[in-house]
Amino acid sequence: MSAINSNLESFRNWKHANLAIAVVLIGALAIFPLFKPPLDGFIDDCVLALAYVVMALGLNIVVGFAGLLDLGFVAFYAFGSYAAGWFASDFFSSINGEKGIHIGAGTFASTLPGIHLNFLLVLVAAVIITSIAGMIIGLPTLRLRGDYIAIVTLAFGEIIGRFAVNGQIGGFKYTNGRQAISPVDALDLPLLKEFDSAFSIRGYYWVALTMVAFSLFVNFRLRDSRLGRAWIAIREDEVAAVSMGIPLVKTKLMAYAAGAAFGGLSGAFLGTYFNSVNANQFQFAFSIFILSMVILGGLGSIWGTVLGAITLSFINSYFIPDVFNGIPGSLGLDFDLTQLSFGIFGFLLVMVMILRPEGLLPEKRRRLELKEGIGADEAIVEVRA
Amino acid sequence: MSTSGSIDPGAPEVAELATEVEGALLSAENVSKIFGGLVAVNDVTVAIPRKKIVSIIGPNGAGKTTFFNMLTGLYKPSRGKIVLDGADITGHRPDKIMAGGVARTFQNIRLFSTMTAVENVMVGQHARMRAGLIGSILRPPRVGREERGTREKARDMLGFVGLETKTFDELAINLSYGDQRRVEIARALASEPRLLLLDEPTAGMNPQESEVLTTFMKRLRDELDLSILLIEHDMKVVMGVSEHITVLDHGEKIAEGDPATVRANPRVIEAYLGKQG
Predict the structure, then answer these.
(1) What average pLDDT score do residues A91-95 get?
(2) Is the pLDDT of residue A18 over 70?
(3) Which of A106-120, A361-375, B12-26, B48-62 has the lowest mean pLDDT?
(4) How would you write B102-129 as a 3-class SS string?
(5) Measured between CB atoms, which of B110, B147, B177 is closest to A240?
(6) Residue A211 C-alpha, separation from nearest chain B C-alpha, in angstroms
(7) pLDDT tens, B149-202?
(8) What number is the average pLDDT over the span A117-129?
């Protein structure tokens, strides 16, 4: 009993601890690029990791909170990226008599044809497009449960991927497929002007960091709200949830929309950062990559998801290609370690499932459940009832 | 299961016959439910008067829970009509019916096991809250007040059903069986229902605990002006608390009336004990 009480005590302190950790961490993270060269490869890895954190936090709402296994998250990455491609490039070059449409665009972009919106407006557009797409993709899954949701979302991910590669209306290739939409306008925000993006990626880093902070804020707010409780209730027991007055359709669609919005946010940022939007990026493997981050960190756990995303992202973009890539060569083998990336991810996931099935930083609920060995009692309750 | 339990000295006064549909809080009129070829509930009419405790009894598989599930919207009746306070709610969604004032508990306790007792009861208030997606994120003062009020009310409700304060923040799965039942009732009450449906609430309870629950049900009726519809196997509880009893067997209504009438009904005795000779 005292063990349980001390656990509860630690719960109450958790909220404050969360806040303190966030403030210190973000402060330290914010200034470190100043000590690195402006085009440093490590900052590049960090930018990617932060963008993936935003995506993983979005997927965590759908899979972790609401318990809807979504295997097609790449669709929202695609929609977000195309929002950047369409609204911040010279892709629609003939629009407005080849003069282009410019709203708050940077000095250089304002001289180009096509639609050029300010980066923040692009983000807003991406969020709107992906939330709607999320709800549309969510609709057919509403009558389904568990694995079947996974299959339908997987199919949608693939469909969007196909459209990205081949899509055209009346001969007009609205995604430009594998030729890619490029160049996408560089980041041009008032405060970041001095860090010209051609010579420094610090601006991108700070924008990504701000997006992560924003995403964390939204995630914590949502988790501790009427809606967050409704999501968890649906995850736990759909029949009881609906009997307690939770409208399933509306609540699930909100989870899809909120999750998708973060995918779109991050997608639009990555489109801008990569300076191009290419249909090759939107593969099924990407959905799995993001899902692995959530599972590795701990389903439903916000900090866990952050940790999982950073870990996998760094393994993918730093440890495998930069740190351990020499290993095959030193063993007299002739192959590139990056070819084994997914094998390595798979191996890591299997190890996590065996050694720490609740994830690296599990959600408090699950941790307590496992710690107190309560799972075993559940069957007994069922039998007695 | 015995139908000849000792006669409760404080037997409730005979209520007006509940089949009279007029003025009932909730009434099911000629309701049937057919699963494929199986007729689970056949042409059952039950009316639940205001501020009364009525029961549905019957052997296992009689269709009691199926009937419950139709009242709460989990199943759509194959035939018939369900009317809540004058409004036809046949085939409405469960969350709508809940919002209309019909709350329930489950035969197998269905708490949200990884949520605390308080959080469970807060979920029960979902239909009475208003915060949406944007409100939840921005949390203006209105939403903050609502959130605090909801938590406050959840704690009050848990106190009302007799849960100890120190267990309020326990995960539901960690609570004792009796406390889980209490939390489930608190969760249902938190939605401010007019009608409470209890599906075998004393299952797994010892006689003392059942006694406490019986008293509690009367308190709910008298203090909160609730109507209660009870599915129950414990005849002592049923006879002691019900003002009207409906007996189902093989999906059909075989008897109804006040406890004394039902107890004496030969068809009821037959359904429970089998035919003599």
Answers:
(1) 85
(2) yes
(3) B12-26
(4) EEECCCCCCCCCCCEHHHHHHHHCHHHC
(5) B110
(6) 15
(7) 999 999 999 999 999 999 999 999 999 988 999 999 999 999 999 999 999 999
(8) 95
Among the residue ranges A15-24, A29-38, A247-256, B192-201, the one predicted with the least confidence is: A15-24
B1-101+193-277 CATH pick, 3.40.630.30, 3.40.50.300, 3.90.79.10, 3.40.50.2020: 3.40.50.300
Asked if B90 and B82 touch (Cβ cutoff 8 Å), the reply is yes
Judging by DSSP bridges, how do beta strands B26-35 and B79-84 pair with one another? antiparallel
B contact residues 217-246, partner A, Cβ 8 Å cutoff: none
Among A37-41, A215-219, B70-74, the least confident range = A37-41
What's the token pair of residue B212?
């406490």
Chain B's closest residue to A9, CA to CA, is B169
Q: Which chain A residues touch B95 with a CB distance below 8 Å?
A: 242-248
Check if the beta carbon of residue B217 is closer than 8 Å to that of residue B131: no
CA contacts within 13 A on the Cβ side of B130 = 8
**How far A48 CA sits from the closest chain B CA (Å)?**
26
Are A366 and B106 inside 8 Å of each other by CB? no
Task: Domain ranges for chain B, please list them.
Answer: 1-101+193-277, 110-176
Question: What angle, 0 to 180 degrees and rounded to 10, lies between the N-to-C axes of helices A284-297 and A74-87?
Answer: 120
